[in-house]
Design brief:
It is a single chain. Helix content is 72%, strand content 0%. The chain has 443 residues and is mainly alpha-helical. The radius of gyration is 23 Å and the shape is globular.
Length: 443
């Protein structure tokens, strides 16, 4: 296993560019495929690309908000004390890898945005406090837990198709969560990954006589922005300083936010990304205690979203070309054409894995691939819930090697993509094996 890991790590170190370069290369490949395979003209393809470039702007903002405010929540004093208590009981590198994986996985199962952040935060703490931990591996391990989001409470496709009025309701109806993420096969799959993935990641840790890269000792320290603290210069007794540091202001506005959330659910509202962001925002305000402390942590968290702001529009353009040119249909039909009722979910997983390189957003992915999969399932008599979950799992497996989602982990850790991708490739193989076995045995 050490040789396999070393092979992929060295391969990534030599040939894998930064995520932004990867996004540019993927854009050029998509344009070329649309021209060569779908016989689109260059002007038509570039027109689709440009029109779709900002189509994920609302989603990009939602993503930025959930990651920044998730960072604040994950680093709030209460959360920090809880994580420190967990870290305090870990003394060996392999135990640190196991804990980082579990925290990332459980956090992602509950909510993918929170899991992305909390996994990176505890991985940095463990790497700093436990001597001998291989820093790139523990960051990769915490990120690997993100795959559990595809089986969890915020799994985009199952949650979407369980909601009345979803885009494909006329073709497939409303599919309750009891038939997807809460079905026995998927619950068992979640349990298998929660047990085996941490053990696999611990197994990947270099031996004491092998090269180990430890975290910088100051990796958990926030970097100052050089701002002048006026409260320090002029004292804390000014009205402005008292308002900035008022706990009552934070508690009152947090209480109003809580009233809204309770009333929203009492009125029959359902959980969505906007409400998740709302809850994370006001919970963070409450836990930080004062407006000044919240803003200070928010400024730290903003560093995690630079790559997202830059790169998500490129993926929006890619998705637009995939949809308008018919490339998604072509890819899906290649696999659907050889499928039987028993094998359609397997080919759905494989095709979803491929398509996720070009459309890495689960919800957006389903919008362009879902109609082909649902029509195929209805035509040949395959299970629709089974087929929908296969698309979700193909998406979640590919996320291990999709730079689109690794960006927050890289921002938190200050590592390069090539530093951790060799490990996530190995993790992806195991996750793919588990998901494939789950889909095939679901019959």
């Amino acid at each position: 296993m050490t040789k396999v890991t070393s092979f992929f790590t060295e391969l990534m170190r030599r040939y894998l560019p930064d995520p932004f370069v990867f996004a540019i290369g993927l854009t050029l490949l998509t344009l070329l495929l649309a021209i060569v395979v779908q016989h689109q003209s260059f002007l038509d393809v570039t027109s689709s690309w440009g029109k779709g470039f900002w189509s994920l702007l609302a989603f990009t903002t939602q993503m930025a908000v959930i990651l920044v405010m998730g960072y604040v929540l994950a680093t709030a004093p209460f959360t920090d004390r809880l994580l420190n208590a967990i870290v305090g009981g870990v003394t060996t590198p392999r135990a640190a890898i196991v804990v980082a994986t579990l925290v990332g996985a459980i956090g992602s199962y509950l909510n993918w945005g929170f899991g992305l952040v909390i996994g990176g935060v505890i991985a940095k703490k463990l790497a700093t406090n436990v001597k001998g931990v291989h820093y790139p591996l523990i960051i990769a391990s915490a990120y690997s837990g993100f795959t559990l989001y595809g089986l969890g409470l915020s799994a985009s496709i199952p949650v979407l198709i369980s909601t009345k009025g979803h885009p494909l309701e006329a073709q497939m109806g409303v599919v309750p969560l009891s038939q997807t993420i809460f079905s026995v096969p998927m619950l068992v799959t979640s349990g298998v990954l929660l047990v085996t993935l941490p053990l696999l990641n611990a197994w990947l840790h270099p031996k004491p006589n092998e090269r180990i890269i430890e975290a910088p000792r100051d990796s958990n320290e926030p970097t100052g922005g050089g701002e002048v603290d006026l409260a320090t210069l002029f004292g804390q007794n000014t009205l402005a300083a008292r308002l900035n540091n008022s706990r009552w202001l934070s508690y009152v506005i947090a209480a109003i936010g809580l009233v809204y959330v309770v009333n929203f659910f009492r009125s029959g509202g359902s959980l969505d990304l906007n409400l998740i962001n709302f809850i994370i925002l006001f919970l963070g305000i409450f836990l930080l205690g004062t407006p000044a402390k919240y803003v200070e942590k928010l400024n730290e968290g903003i560093k995690t979203i630079a790559g997202i702001v830059l790169q998500y529009p490129f993926y929006a353009g890619i998705m637009a070309v995939m949809a308008s040119s018919g490339l998604v249909g072509t890819i899906s039909e290649v696999f659907v054409g050889i499928a039987t009722p028993a094998t359609l979910p397997f080919w759905g997983l494989v095709s979803s894995f491929v398509i996720n390189f070009f459309a890495p957003s689960g919800g957006g992915h389903w919008v362009i691939q879902g109609p082909f999969m649902v029509d195929a399932a209805r035509t040949i008599g395959a299970s629709i819930p089974h087929t929908a979950m296969s698309v979700m799992l193909g998406n979640a497996c590919n996320d291990m090697i999709q730079p689109f989602w690794i960006l927050p982990a890289l921002a938190l850790s200050k590592l390069k993509l090539k530093d951790i991708m060799g490990y996530t490739v190995v993790m992806m193989f195991w996750i793919g094996l588990v998901y494939t076995a789950a889909i095939l045995l679901w019959q």
